[in-house]
Amino acid sequence: MDATYLSEHAHRLLATARTHGLQLHAQLGQALTPSPAPPRPSSPSGVNLDIAPNRTLPGMSAFEEMVGGLISYALIGSLVGLVISLMIIAAGRWFGNPYASSVGRTGIFSSLIAGLLLGAGPQLVIWMYNIGREF
Asked: Is residue 15 part of a domain?
């Protein structure tokens, strides 16, 4: 094989790759273009239900206060768990017990995650509720 044949073959391959690359790019552009959302199907009976949370129910304010109180207790429990875990780590290191230090680290991690979820919980539930309403 001589160099001229290889050069011509390489040029043909490059031209083919460019052509197919442009076609592939156009196909990808069409595939990635967002299509409009399909219309929501109506129910077979023709009745569409739109159920939304109702904050005017009797006892709703008392229920909200009760849930807020439970969250406060859970946060206090998480803080107590954090302090106890720190004490376990300190005692484990003092007595040279690596298992106690490991348990203490797990307790710290669990307490911090509990605090994170308690703080973000209401917003996470609302976020998921809004996602569910889109279906």
From this structure: no
